[in-house]
Amino acid sequence: MATAIAVVRLRNLVAVVILLGLYSLLMAAVWVLLDAVDVAFTEAAVGAGITTVLMLAAVSLTSREEKPAGRPSVLALALVAVTGAALLYGTADMPPFGDSDNPIHRHVAPRYIYDSPAEIGIPNMVTSVLASYRGYDTLGETTVIFTAGISVLLLLGGRRRKDKAGGSGEDGAPGEDGA
Amino acid sequence: MKDLIVVRVVTKLLIPFILLFALYVQTHGDYGPGGGFQAGVIFAAAFILYALVFGMTNARRAMPERPMLILVALGVLIYGGVGVAALLLGGHYLEYAVLVSDPVEGNEIGIWLVELGVGITVAAVMMTIFFTFAARKR
Known about the structure:
The complex is a heterodimer. By secondary structure, chain A is mainly alpha-helical.
């Protein structure tokens, strides 16, 4: 929580990125406390590790300082407050935390817990849910990653090559530049 | 960072273990926490660490651009290919049970292949993104 507030308040983008990494690491600790080790693993590796490096790479391409913001808007503050209040009001209807009669424990979870070792044959339920019962979703996630990589290449890699071809004046086909 | 001998030596010592740990997470996802996604990220982290310490030119030599782009697509192709293979063998899309005669074993093999696909794509994409950003700097 303190790191989140610091992230919002700070203007030095490098410090913000480092604090976001710290935030991810703390979140990973929270996931471990909630017995969600797979999520904790992902949070620590992706959130605290790779994302920090990628964000630092991105910051190094722009400036290190955030531009000073204009006057804080009253309308925006009101909107955020109302949304936050609505969300808090919504949590009042949530089932009690950790109750075994909660809807989430009565729908498909029992089948995953009791039948997945026999049906899938692997002990880690998270993996069997992720790759087998929810295989389509994971295929979608992989496609998202794939698309992200391709987009970065198209946005950043392509322009670099054109610059190089234009700067050094090497044999780049004239038709290609026009197209 | 090329002059810092401690950093260089420690990095050289660490990278094999990072890669080994990534492979362990990849293949051990069936039994403990982990899987293709985490393994791919850890695998990419090893190469990113190498690029940070030894510079982009050496990193490019270790992981050239073209094979990396092929790997980006290969992972998704493996994933989708497992689904198509299940279709051809008379099951539903991504129904691993039909891959071999024993449904449980089919599921194990299918999950293993699918996780491999996820790992390859994630690792290659993370490296691609970092290398593309780093190449823009110069």
